[in-house]
From TrEMBL:
This is Aspartokinase. It comes from Methanosphaera cuniculi. GO terms for molecular function: aspartate kinase activity; ATP binding. Its EC number is 2.7.2.4. One of its GO terms (cellular component) is cytosol. Pfam families: AA_kinase (PF00696), ACT_7 (PF13840), ACT_9 (PF22468).
Length: 408
């Protein structure tokens, strides 16, 4: 007998027909001898409509506590309808909202971005939710919501319903977490933009986080903090009305529940190579010409940046000497570049964190201590989850230690 946590997103319960289809898929799973915990989001657009009503009626005068209570209404409606629909199909169900004695998700009192008390939540899950399962009752739990120690309703922030599903799955030791949404699974790209998009059979947690950080809205990375590696997880479409349908499996362990910043310094010396020319940004194919030449000689580029009249590349020092010769041929035998320069020895410090995307001022926090110590930054590149700093080689160790001390 397996324990399955099935989470239904707002679109999946957006109409009466979809609610019935969702309920039937839960009952079918139950009839196969499995225990099922249902997590439900607010019915499609309910939360957005509530936020607009609040903005139109009182604007910024609403308190966080009041707003959390208002936002909770959508989920509290959903669980009641879902539980009643399951019971109409002949199986016992019980809705559980933050006002229920059996409510499991305990948090601090940060009403709109509540932090989960994992220990107390697990205790509640094993005391109440497990007991309901043993009695043959399907618990239908509000997603997105929590309750603080004073009994106030809190919300879990973005991706809150997905967080609820993975959290409950981890606390009860579920066999599988199924995220039911409006897509067939994780796609190779947005099918609304390219009709050649195809469904992926599996994706790692790390890949899923990176996709989410760059705009994919299938699953919020916060939820993957609670993805236990021993628990199967998948994303499927509500259209099939079947929790057994193949979607996209999410494989691998969770990423840390607390933010972890990985800071590393490359042990080897790099060197900077700059090629210059007029109006390079408006010369199609210039980058591919450079990288193709470098690739033909199996040289690795550690960093690259483009400017109006220059392209800067970073190589291991010995490789830079080879690249200098290779790219000089491109300069003298073509008409797009005018000169190439081999610069100083460089150290590279890399920082990686999935929290960077939500941390205003992170670049300033990293560069300020270097500025105060008169360390010149030769080049800096950043993405949603990483920052890479290039400094003079003799400043490398000092830069690494300063950044490490500041961020840790």
């Amino acid at each position: 007998m397996a324990i399955v946590v099935a989470k239904f997103g707002g679109t999946s319960v957006g109409t009466g027909e979809r609610i019935q289809k969702a309920a039937k898929s839960v009952v079918n799973e139950y009839m196969q001898g499995n225990k099922v915990i249902v997590v439900v989001s607010a019915i499609n657009k309910t939360t957005d409509e509530s936020i607009k009503l609040v903005q139109d009626s009182m604007g910024k005068l609403v308190t966080e506590k009041q707003l959390a209570g208002i936002l909770s209404m959508g989920e509290m409606q959903s669980v009641r309808i879902m539980a009643a629909t399951i019971e109409s199909l002949g199986v016992k169900a019980e809705y559980i909202d933050p006002f229920s004695e059996k409510w499991p998700v305990i948090t601090d009192s940060n009403y709109l971005e509540a932090k989960i008390d994992k220990e107390k939540t697990e205790e509640k899950v094993l005391t109440y939710i497990e007991k309901l399962l043993d009695q043959g009752i399907i618990p239908v739990v509000c997603g997105f919501l929590g309750r603080d120690l004073d009994g106030n309703v809190t919300t879990l922030g973005r991706g809150g319903s997905d967080v609820s599903a993975f959290l409950l799955g981890q606390c009860i030791g579920a066999d599988e977490v199924v995220i039911v949404t409006d897509v067939k699974g994780v796609m190779s790209t947005d099918p609304r933009k390219l009709n050649t998009a195809r469904k992926l059979d599996k994706i790692t947690v790390e890949e899923m986080i990176d996709l989410a950080n760059y705009g994919a809205q299938v699953l919020h990375p916060n939820a993957l903090r609670y993805k236990d590696p021993s628990i199967k997880a998948k994303i499927i479409s509500f259209e099939y009305g079947d929790l057994r349908v193949q979607g996209t499996d999410i494989i691998g362990p969770a990423y840390p529940e607390e933010d972890v910043i990985t800071i590393t310094k490359l042990d080897e010396q790099l060197a900077v190579l700059a090629v210059v020319g007029e109006d390079l940004m408006n010369k199609p194919g210039i980058l591919s010409s450079i990288t193709e030449r470098v690739n033909e000689h199996n040289l690795t580029i550690y960093g690259i940046s483009t400017g109006e009249s220059s392209i800067t590349l970073f190589f291991k020092y010995d490789d830079a000497l080879k690249a200098h010769e290779i790219l000089h041929d491109l300069v003298i035998n073509g008409d797009m570049l005018s000169s190439i320069s081999l610069g100083q020895k460089i150290a590279m410090v890399s920082l990686v964190s999935h929290e960077f995307i939500d941390t205003p001022g992170i670049i300033s926090n990293i560069t300020k201590p270097l500025h105060e110590e008169n360390i010149n930054i030769v080049e800096l590149s950043s993405s949603q989850t990483s920052v890479v700093i290039f400094v003079d080689w003799e400043d490398g160790e000092r830069a690494y230690n300063l950044v490490k001390e500041t961020l840790e």
